[in-house]
Design brief:
single chain; alpha/beta; TIM Barrel; 8-stranded parallel beta barrel; 8 strands; globular; binds phosphoenolpyruvate
Length: 271
C-alpha cells in the first residue's frame, strides 16, 4: 500500500526566528492518522523546524541539494551538510529549473546524490502551458521522468523511497489547477515510465503527488484519484488552517486505503 504524503514547500519564506513557531502550529493542526507529513523550509530554517516538530511525527526536508558531496561550489549546499537536519529533499522543482537552469540531467545527478546520502527524494516534473495546449503534456512529462531516472536501477529507487511530484508549471502559484482526471492520467503516464525502469514493482510502489495551487478546498479532487498519493503544497503550506484541511482530507484517503488493504489480505487461517 502506497503512503499518503503531504509535503509543504515553503520556498523562500520564513526566517530561523519565525519558522519554528509556524512549523509547531502546522504540526499541532495536522495530527491525523496515516498521513506522512513533510515540511521543507529554507535551508537556514531547517534546524528551527527540526526542533519545533521533534516528537510530532512530522518529517523535515530540504528544497534542493548539490550533486557533489563537497567542492568549490560557492553558495551551494551538499548532502552531508543536511545530516541530522533533513531526511527528505525536493529535486528539480520548476522554479529551480526556471531560475537555476536545472535540467533533467542535473536532476539525475542530484537524485543519485540523494539516494547515496539517504535523503528521500521528491522529484518534480511538469509541463508548460504551451505543452498542454499542444497536446504533448504526457510526452514532455514522460521524457522528464526518463531523464531524471536515467541509469538508475529499480532497487535503489525503491530502497531510497522515490516520490514523484507532478506539478504542471502553469498551475504553480497561479490559483489554477489541473483537473483531478488530468492529474490521474498524468500519474498513469508516469507509472508507465516507472514500469519501463523496474516493471510493475516500481510503478506500483512509487507515490505520485500532485502539486499546483493545492488548497484545503481543492485537494479532495486529487486525493479521490487512486493513482494520486498526496500533494506537494506551496503557498497554502504556510497557513496552518489550510494545512489542517489538506491533511484532514488526506487522512480520509489514507484510512480508506487501509480498509481496502485489510479487506484484501487473506484471513489468518480457518475460522
Ligand atoms: C510548489 O511550490 O511546489 C507549489 C505547487 O506551489 P503552489 O502550491 O503555491 O502552487
Amino acid at each position: 500500500m502506497r503512503p499518503v504524503v503531504i509535503a509543504a514547500n515553503w520556498k523562500m519564506h520564513t526566517t530561523p526566528a519565525d519558522a519554528g513557531e509556524l512549523a509547531a502550529s502546522i504540526a499541532a493542526a495536522t495530527r491525523q492518522p496515516g498521513v506522512v507529513r513533510v515540511i521543507c523550509p529554507p535551508f537556514l530554517s531547517l534546524e528551527a523546524v527540526r526542533r519545533a516538530v521533534a516528537g510530532e511525527g512530522v518529517e523535515v526536508g530540504a528544497q534542493n541539494v548539490h550533486h557533489e558531496a563537497s567542492g568549490a561550489y560557492t553558495g551551494e549546499i551538499a548532502a552531508p551538510m543536511l545530516a541530522g537536519l533533513a531526511t527528505w529533499v525536493i529535486l528539480g522543482h520548476s522554479e529551480r529549473r526556471r531560475d537555476a537552469g536545472e535540467t533533467d540531467a542535473v536532476v539525475n545527478r542530484k537524485l543519485q546524490r540523494a539516494l547515496a546520502s539517504g535523503l528521500r527524494p521528491i522529484v518534480c516534473v511538469g509541463e508548460q502551458l504551451e505543452d498542454r495546449d499542444a497536446g504533448r503534456a504526457e510526452a514532455v512529462v514522460s521524457a522528464q521522468v526518463r531523464g531524471c531516472l536515467a541509469g538508475l536501477d529499480a532497487e535503489s529507487l525503491l530502497a531510497g523511497g522515490l516520490v514523484i511530484a507532478y506539478e504542471p508549471v502553469w498551475a504553480i502559484g497561479t490559483g489554477r489547477t489541473a483537473s483531478g482526471a488530468d492529474a490521474a492520467a498524468m500519474s498513469a503516464a508516469i507509472r508507465a515510465v516507472l514500469a519501463e525502469v523496474g516493471a510493475g514493482t516500481l510503478a506500483d510502489a512509487v507515490p505520485v503527488l500532485y502539486g499546483g495551487s493545492v488548497t484545503a478546498a481543492n485537494v479532495g479532487e486529487f486525493l479521490v484519484e487512486p493513482s494520486i498519493d498526496g500533494a506537494l503544497v506551496g503557498g497554502a503550506s504556510l497557513k496552518p488552517d489550510e494545512m489542517a484541511g489538506i491533511v484532514a482530507r488526506a487522512a480520509v484517503t489514507a484510512t480508506a486505503r487501509a480498509v481496502v488493504e485489510a479487506a484484501s489480505r487473506p484471513a489468518d487461517g480457518p475460522a
